[in-house]
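Researcher: Hi, I'm a grad student and pretty new to this. My advisor asked me to get structures for two proteins we've been looking at. I'm not sure of the right format, so I'll just paste the first sequence and hope you can take it from there.
Model: That works fine. Here's the first sequence with its structure tokens right after it:
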Amino acid sequence: MTLIATFNCADGFVLAGDSEENYGPYRRAVQKIKPRTIGGLTAIIAGSGIGPLIDSFIVRLERIQVQFSDVDSFARYIEGELTNFYARDVATYQAAEGEDKEHSFIVAVHDKRVDQCRVWVTRHATLEPVTTYALVGVEDALYHHAAERFYSQSLQLPQGVLTALYVLAIGEATSVYIRRPFHVAVISNNGIWLEDDSYVAEVSNRLREYEKRVNKIFLDCADSTIPLHQLQAELGQFAEAATALHKEQIDRYVQSLTPEQVASYSRPYPKTPLGQPIIFHLDGSPAVTEHDPNRDLDVYARAARERFCQLGYVEHFSKTLPGDKYAVSVSGRWENQPHQLIAEMTREEFITYCKARDMVPSIGPERFIQLLAEESSEAYFYLRPKQSVSQKSA
């Protein structure tokens, strides 16, 4: 048995499942949430039922030579294959005594040609669109209750992931047929992403820590024997502890990122507060996440400039020009002076110029140019004077 959950969020779908698979008296860990290419589309087929039959159904789908024109033709094909699956595989399978031959699937698909996604749950051999949430596997009323507690049509993907993992955690705590590791996929019109296993484990542990604290304050609030002043003190302690945990989780995640990951638009949803500044070390590793929205970020910029100057770097300024060219200047912003133009360079000249002078940030001039095009037309960076590089080589 297993537990697989999907949630239709305001900005996409979350699909999550455990890894338990039972076969008679034996069990093994299986990754059930796995993107595959089927008929030219990216899909996930996650099933509950008899393990070998589910595996054979998925393998047969991966072998098809059909190229689907859209997600609707994909759905019709899957329904036909489900009919064949029950008539051929399930009907001829020699089930053990008491073994249930009913199967359930959650099917997700994305068509990158038109940026469209769909998620369905099976009702025997029919695909039914998931309009709210769906659970397959060990469908205990407790798990539906947990899903209903948190689900709403306005649920965003970050909290959809948390809700799915919370339901799976309850399942693991109450059933011998549900077991970690959990796997999570996010499906949106932009694509299908499989979450990193370490991130899923960290989020699951985080939920347990918060739940312990929330449960205590929940009972304290409802307990009329607790004096008002004591409740106010406990609420203050809870707020302080919850804020510290929240800050710690943001900082820990940010410190695991590279500059390229921070600047990337390829993630399906944000995992840190939007617009929150991140300050980097010289080697490109994140150093500080600034949580105070009123903090003057020039404090960090000035400190960085002082440190760079000690190491022999000079702040430069780059601005994009028509014709894929770049104006490179020595920065004068800290002296309230105009920038001193060095040269107008082609892309290749700019890359060569920066590589010869040990560019910071350490993402490299190629990626720096790409970010200039994606985010803004101008940016500050640091270079070491060319003679310093020569002396260093000598």
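Researcher: Oh nice, that was easy. Here's the second one.
Model: And its structure:
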Amino acid sequence: MASRTKYTDSESRQRVGQAIRRPAPSGEERSEPRAAVGVRVAWPTAVSTKVGAKARQVEWNERAGPAANARRKLPLLTADFFARVRAALAARPSPEQLHGVRLAAKRMRYTLELFRPCYGPGLEARIESLRNMQQVLGEINDCAATRRLVERTMPVSPQRTRMERFLVSRLHKKTGELRHLWTEGLDAPGQELHWARYLARNARTPRVTRHPETGGTKTPMAADKRR
């Protein structure tokens, strides 16, 4: 099995910075539409190891096009996400505390989805891995919520005892699934660097075509064969 190398948050961000220092394709930024991405995405601008830390606002550069924003911002947001979740899971959080990890995964997924037209199937695979993580986190949250409901509403009885044992067992199972998804999937050795390189080097200006009937424009995605 591949050995796992541990990096501090500072070292991780330095490696990501080294991975993305590659010039954009010649002339691409000049050809991108002005203000193509004019959105704000809630996200911490600095690494936070506090599970419930409040997300801050990140300003996207409205003068640059979507591909330029993707190349510059997404690798750094990815580094923050990996550091945040890594620190949270290392602290052995309770199911209630894992809610912060669930929110972080949701923000990361939604942010990547904004840039779907700039990438190809490689981005879809990463979005799917985040979706799977969200699914397991949601099941953990459901178990914890049901357990609290049982404690509040069911009188002490053999039936309640069986229910509580089932929920505790399911919580342990789903928590194990989450750790497996993280350590053997998203955070497997080298994965963070692969994410950073992919996001920094494969963003391309979306192709815009005019609809023959309405005269409007659209960005083709289904037939996109980019990486």
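Researcher: Is there anything I should tell my advisor about the second?
Model: You could mention this: Residues 5 and 156 are 49 Å apart (CA to CA).
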